[in-house]
């Protein structure tokens, strides 16, 4: 007599499930060995981000005259009172690399700041001093060398939306880069490059003498 299909014993169902798992694992191993089959069943990454939105448009008249690259090593340590570092405390060694631009705002020069002689062979321009732009940290060249965290800090990372965040050392790196840019003579280089640019531009227009004065 042929047994009914609906009355399969429990041990037979378990054995069939185990066999199915073995078949799937065996197929996965074969896909990783045989060329071409792995790509057929591999994973794909899709970028479903929305389009960028234009928030504002500004007309600028800055001449970006110079740019400097800087690198700083940040050693940031945070301790807790009455607790050893192994329990509560962090120390991060971070290498920050970034750039700072220097510019001259030509748009601030008015009609009274440009004088030309009658023969149009000499011109004097009065421009504001060069200024530094905001430091820009390069994520491709910035990295954490080491991180040390106490037990409580490691436990807090488990419940944090941004574990092992590096915002503090990044902000500190940007601050140090900005300070280094102020002492680097970058603005003086920007003013020299702006003068060279204006002398070449006005010289091509027939001016034989060009004088550029910087001041507030």
Q: Can you put this structure into words, describing what you see?
A:
The protein is an alpha+beta fold and 216 residues long. Helices cover 33% and strands 28% of the residues. It is built from 5 helices and 8 strands, in the order H-H-E-E-E-E-E-E-E-H-H-H-E. It has helices spanning 10-33, 37-40, 151-158, 167-182, 186-204; strands spanning 62-79, 89-105, 114-116, 122-127, 131-132, 136-137, 143-149, 209-214. The strands form 2 sheets. Strands 1, 2, 5, 6 and 7 form a 5-stranded antiparallel beta sheet that branches. Strands 3-4-8 form a 3-stranded mixed beta sheet, covered by helices on one side. The radius of gyration is 33 Å and the shape is elongated. It starts with 9 loop residues before the first helix and ends with a strand.
Residue runs with pLDDT of under 50 for 5 or more positions: 1-6, 29-34, 152-156, 158-163
Rounded to the nearest angstrom, the distance between the terminal CA atoms is 107 Å
Mean pLDDT: 75
This entry's quaternary arrangement is: single chain
Question: What fraction, in percent, of the residue positions are helical?
Answer: 25-40%
Q: Tell me the major beta sheet.
A: 5 strands, antiparallel
Tell me the number of strands. Answer: 8
SSE succession: HHEEEEEEEHHHE
Q: Label the overall shape.
A: elongated
What is the gyration radius calculated from CA atoms? 33 Å
Strand content: 25-35%
Figure out the total of helices: 5
Label the structural class: alpha+beta
Keywords:
elongated, 5-stranded antiparallel β-sheet, 216 residues, 3-stranded mixed β-sheet, disordered N terminus, alpha+beta, 5 helices
């Amino acid at each position: 007599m042929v047994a009914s299909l609906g009355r399969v014993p429990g041990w037979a169902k378990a054995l069939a499930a185990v066999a199915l798992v073995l078949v799937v694992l065996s197929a996965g191993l074969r896909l990783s060995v045989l060329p071409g089959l792995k790509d057929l069943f591999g994973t794909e990454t899709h970028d479903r981000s929305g389009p960028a939105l234009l928030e504002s448009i500004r007309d600028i008249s800055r001449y970006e005259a110079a740019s400097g690259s800087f690198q700083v090593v940040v050693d940031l340590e945070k301790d807790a009172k009455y607790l050893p570092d192994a329990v509560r405390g962090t120390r991060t060694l971070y290498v920050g690399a970034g750039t700072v631009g220097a510019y001259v705002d030509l748009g601030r020069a008015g009609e009274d700041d440009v004088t030309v002689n009658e023969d149009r062979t000499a011109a004097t321009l009065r421009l504001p001093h060069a200024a530094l732009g905001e430091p820009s940290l390069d994520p491709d060249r910035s990295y954490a060398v080491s991180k040390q965290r106490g037990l409580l800090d490691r436990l807090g990372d488990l419940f944090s939306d941004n574990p092992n965040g590096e915002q503090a050392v990044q902000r500190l790196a940007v601050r140090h880069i900005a300070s280094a840019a102020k002492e680097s003579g970058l603005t003086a280089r920007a003013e020299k490059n702006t003068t060279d640019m204006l002398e070449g531009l006005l010289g091509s227009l027939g001016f034989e003498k060009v004088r550029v004065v910087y001041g507030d």
